[in-house]
Each structure stands twice: as C-alpha cells, then as structure tokens.
Amino acid sequence: MKKSVLFVIDSLECAGAEKSLVTLLSLLDYSSYEIDLMLFGHGGALQSLVPKEVNVLKPLPYTEFSSLNFKDAFLYSAKSLNYKMLTSRIKYTLNLRIKNYKNSQKARLYWQSVSKVIEKNPKNYDIAISYAQGVPTFYVAEKVTAAKKFAWVNVSYRLDENERQFQKKYYDQFNRIVNVSESTEEVFLDTFPCYEGKTEVIYDINNAELIDEMSKIGPGYEDGFDGLRILTIGRLANQKGYDLAIGACKRLKDKGVNFRWYSLGKGPLEKDIKEMIRKNGLNEQFKLLGVKSNPYPYIKNADIYVQTSRFEGFGLAIAEARMLNIPVVTTRFDAVFNQMIQEKNGLVVEMNPESVSKGILRLINDPSLKQTIIQFLSHEKKGNVEEIEKFYQLIC
Fold this sequence. Notes:
The protein is of the alpha/beta class. The protein folds into two domains: about 5-205 and about 385-395, Glycogen Phosphorylase B (Rossmann fold, 3-Layer(aba) Sandwich), CATH 3.40.50.2000; about 210-380, Rossmann fold (3-Layer(aba) Sandwich). Helices cover about 40% and strands about 20% of the residues. The chain has 16 helices and 13 strands. It has helices spanning about 15-25, 60-65, 70-80, 85-100, 105-115, 135-145, 160-170, 180-190, 210-215, 240-255, 270-280, 295-300, 315-325, 355-365, 365-380, 385-395, and strands at about 5-10, 35-40, 55, 125-130, 145-155, 175-180, 200, 230-235, 260-265, 285-290, 305, 330, 345-350. The strands form two sheets. Strands 3-2-1-4-5-6-7 form a seven-stranded parallel beta sheet. It has a six-stranded parallel beta sheet with strand order 10-9-8-11-12-13, sandwiched between helices. Helix 4 runs antiparallel to helix 5 (about 105-115) and helix 10 crosses helix 14 (about 355-365). The longest helix has 15 residues, at about 85-100. The chain is globular.
C-alpha cells in the first residue's frame, strides 16, 4: 500500500528551495508514494516541471480571495454576506504598513491575521512536510493531520525572542526538523537549542545530468553582446544583496571593463533596484531579465557567476553554476564553505561592493587563475542525487 505524503511550500517560483523540491519530486518512487502538493501561490515558473504523478491541490479559498483586487474582494464578501476573509486581509495589510518587517515577521503577521479563515486539510496523511519555514510550517503544524510531520529549514534562521516564542509552538508539532546544510543547522540550534537531537541535515538535492541537459534547451541571452557576461540569480530582496552587486557593477564600469551583468529573479525590491541602476548610470551594464523557468542556458553561457547574498541556507544557484563549470565569485555568507573551496572552485570575498568587484577583476585580469578554477570545476563531483536516500530513511 502506498504511503500518502503531503508537501507544502509557498509557491514554485524560480528559487533555491523551489528548485530543490521540484528535483526531489522528479526522483521519487511513485510506486511507493502517493504525493499531494499544496501551494500558497499558484502559477510559479517551476510549476510546469512538477511530475504528472503529483496531485497539485486546488488553491485555498483564502489565497484565491487574496488575489482579487480590493473592490472585487469587497463585492465578493458582500455577496456572500461573509466578511471574515476581508477583515483578515485588511488586518494583515494594515499591519504591514506599520514598518518594514523582516520575512519571519511577515510570516507571523500573516498567520496571526488569516489563520482563522484557512480551513484544515480534510485528508489524513502518513507524512506531511513543510518544505520551507514560515507559513508552510505553521500550516502543516496547525491545519494538517498526519502520522509524522517534518519541517525543512533552508535559511540561516536567526530570530528575535518574540519570533522565537511564536514559532516554537509550531516546531513542537514536528517529529524531525531538516536543515539544508550544517551551518544552517548550527544557526537553527543557536535559536532553538531545545531541539538538539531533533534535527538533521539533508542537502538541497540537485541533479547534474538534468541540469546539463536543460542547459542545452531553450533560449538564453539574445542581446548579441560580445563582451564579458556576469550572471546573478536570486529574488530581488535584501537577502540577495543587489545593492552590493550594483555597487560592484559601478566600479567595473568606472574601470572601463567591457561587460554586462545580468540578473534572473523578481521580488519586492524590483522598483528600488531599478532606481539604483538608473541613478548609477548602469542601464546598459546591469540587466534585469526577470524569472526564467529554465535558467541553465544563461548559467552555461555566462563567463562568471556572482552571488552577493547576505545569508543563504545553502546557495543552490552556486551549486548549479559549479555543475556547469562556471567560475564563482561569492560573498562570505554563513553556509558558503559548505561548497566553496577558496581559489579552487571560485573566490569567496567580503560582503561589500569593493571586495566583490576586486574578486571579479581577479578573474578577468588573471586568465590562468580562471582557467585553473574551470579545470578544477570540470573534475568536481557533480550533483548529489544520493541525498534522496537520506530522504527515504527520514520518511520510512
């Protein structure tokens, strides 16, 4: 008899945890598992890559309601004579306007505002998995019935006391807590030392053969540019350090480098980032390409991959660049040395624009160093599909 498994994640936009989940789903043995997938946001770039064996659950009524414009939401509420969802939505919106909240705070505010209008999942599962911290974790803890529950943590999860106390009552509901790297686990246990012995590490799964095949499919750069191509992938959010990238880009321009710096991603800071690009006179040098469901032709045809993150749980885009033998320049975030070997598979630099630009210039001005790195990358172990065995051991 097949085991019933529910995965819950915010959406399937093109980001690290989302790509990891799609890869995991592509490797599962569907003769042994019956898989449901619940999303809080439908229509993400990666949703089309979900295997056909996976049952993608219908959107929650509240998530459909929250996608309506305010006028339509009000008319819907008036017609149904039920204002609970509208009240919850207004409460959350007003709370967000008070100040600039961190993601963990936004997740708490969201759940405190709307959880009462989100119904419980009617099915009893053998296993339920929240594949991201925040709202998916709260939902699985409170709204799902399962024999076993597992929570994934894919960021360096530093929380203040208020957030820690709020989230603890949800993590208490889980059998195991999975971190995507040793450093992520270390940070998590600094925040929640009470879960010592309840955590383990399973790396984000990436399939090198699949990535190599996808890098040969579909369009990539189409601007005909013949200079140096630099690529960054990540949400347009504070975590990803786009201000550092733009500062480094300005320094490269001032030094007369013939380059273009491309970004794949979207996010809440898009307007601010566009304004930074304009103010620094970088419209020809820094190109925002939006989200691509297949980013791999862009990685494969880049000369240098640059990650300017302030923090990461693992750094999946770095792993993907390495799998395609592209030299990496990355900031020194918590988990960086889980995969980077300084001056072997790339350069790790300090978290400021000057250091980022100097790292890039080292690769430009020292072709032998760049070639040595490419040679090392070509012999590195590719991918980690064997992590699927840890997953099976977890849910057995």
